[in-house]
Amino acid sequence: MAQRFRVLVPIFAFVLGILAVVFSFLAYAKRIKAEEVGPKVNGACVYPHTGACALGITAAALLLAEQTLISAAFNCFCCCGVRISSTCSAITSIILFVISWITFVIAFMGLLYTAIHNNISYLAKIQSEDNNHICKVGKEDVFLGATIWCIITIVLGLISYAFWAYGAANNTNNNYASSSNYKQGVAMGRPHTQLSKEQY
């Protein structure tokens, strides 16, 4: 069951991540561009209707789901009693996991920025509040940057999970081997020796 869980989690996380990247690219491609803004009507800018806002929100939701799934998998290991020692794989996993959350916040905020700055109502509002009444659009670099940070977050999350699952599997195998050796020693009449609680 645990082995199956370790296989399914990265698969589902990868699918969610790919969908998040696809939707973020679509949001970037369909963003409102300055040359697409029509001439002013009664002093108000005329923005084209695009699906970039909905696409950006969808990408952010999918990225959140992917990151939450990875986090839930880490907690699940702990709840099920699967603990690993402070080995290189465990330390690497934790470091990458923390970094993935930092990049997630950057990507998530960027995707929300993409969604907000492709919302016609919001753009009309900030244009009306501007004394110069300039037709503003979102920054292209931020849109593209959100997509790149989205990819980085997904890669870091999957790699951190891979290290954690590898360490947990090794720890389980070591415990099983220790238990087998202990039982074999008792069966052969060897004196009882206390096994070390943790093997590296």
UniProtKB/TrEMBL annotation:
InterPro entries: DEAL/Modifying_wall_lignin1/2 (IPR009606), DESIGUAL (IPR052222). It is a multi-pass membrane protein. The chain crosses the membrane at residues 7-29, 94-116, 142-164. Keywords: Membrane, Signal, Transmembrane, Transmembrane helix. GO terms for cellular component: endomembrane system. It is found in: Endomembrane system. Its main location: membrane. PANTHER family: OS07G0462200 PROTEIN-RELATED. Belongs to the DESIGUAL family. This is Uncharacterized protein. It comes from Chenopodium quinoa (Quinoa). The lineage of its organism: Eukaryota, Viridiplantae, Streptophyta, Embryophyta, Tracheophyta. The gene is LOC110728504.
